[in-house]
Amino acid sequence: MTAKEYATVKVEIEDRVGWMILNRPEKRNAMNPQMHYDMEDVINHLSLDPDIDVIVLTGAGESFCAGMDLKEYFRALDNDPAEQIKVRWSMRNWQYFRLRMCPKTTIAAINGWCFGGAFTPLISCDLAIAADEAVFGLSEVNWGILPGGYVTRDVAMVMNYRDALYYILTGKTFDGKKAAELGLVNESVPLSDLRSTVMSLAEDIKKINPETLKHAKEAFKMSRDMDYDQSFDYLAAKNDQLRFRDPQGARDKGIKKFIDDKTYRPGLGAFGQDEE
Ligand code: COA
């Protein structure tokens, strides 16, 4: 599938990895209404593209994303409630529903500035790698609002109580290394290594059966809000669903290679999707 063109997002495809690049570098990739509309479509296309296994979200230029656009989203829509609702639905749709529950594994590559509203797409991605040089901030209080949308809720999910409140209440910035220490990203590397690190992580993901990954992600994201008994039952049913839906039969192949053929140790890695 050839990459479509969008006003505010660039799409690049390399080795079965789809890169969604927020592309308003002159505005530090702040999210205006058009970017929300574009992102809904971008994620839809990449999620359904059979030639893509992993999806990466990053930003063009020196910024990952400077949050919501203060001019085109906040000020311009203050007196236009109908348009505000439309944009909010679009934002929720791509950031929370389509990205968070994307059927492919998603990685955020935080290449630079990452402020306010940008925390939601960052946290919605399954995995995240930051550049050491990236600058993060819950800057909302600095200009008189609280972290809205899903930001406060998302931060409460991934950061511990004291750290979350510290950054929410001070609006202070922190770098990529600190983001890794806080558990906001998996790892921080020099900016010059960001793309190769993300591609190498994508290689690891590509070795694993895609249907298994999709179900494992859904299981984790859905069960964390259930109580113990509900999650036990749900996860059993989810594994049955996976067995039924996996066209490659990874589970039975894996068991056979281990128990019957004795050619493989499940504890030490995936057995390779292409192997019989
Ligand atoms: N909304 C709207 N426009 C934004 C923006 C945002 N969130 N972030 C940056 N821009 C625009 C600036 O208005 C400026 O536009 P102009 O060239 O038409 O004047 C352009 O992007 C460059 O911004 P500038 O501040 O000059 O760049 P910088 O590299 O010196 O600083 C930031 C980068 C990200 C530190 C700074 O732009 C900033 O603080 N942005 C707001 C971040 C924020 O608090 N976001 C939370 C929103 S929820």
Topology diagram in text:
Elements: E1 9-14, E2 17-22, H1 33-48, E3 54-59, E4 63-65, H2 70-77, H3 81-99, E5 105-110, E6 113-115, H4 119-124, E7 127-131, E8 135-137, H5 151-158, H6 161-170, E9 173-175, H7 176-181, E10 187-189, H8 194-206, H9 210-223, H10 228-245, H11 250-260
Parallel strand pairs: 2-3, 3-5, 4-6, 5-7, 6-8, 7-10
Antiparallel strand pairs: 1-2, 8-9
This protein binds coenzyme A.
The site of coenzyme A (COA) has 15 residues, from helix 2 and strand 6.
Q: Would you identify the CATH H-level superfamily of the largest domain?
A: 2-enoyl-CoA Hydratase, Chain A, domain 1
Average of pLDDT: 95
Second rung of CATH, namely the architecture of the largest domain? Alpha-Beta Complex
Give the names of the bound compounds.
coenzyme A
CATH topology of the largest domain: 2-enoyl-CoA Hydratase, Chain A, domain 1
Count of distinct structural domains: 2
CATH class type of the largest domain: Alpha Beta
Rg (CA only)? 20 Å
Give the CA-based shape.
globular
> In which range does the helix fraction lie?
40-55%
* Discrete helix count: 11
Write the H/E string, N to C.
Answer: EEHEEHHEEHEEHHEHEHHHH
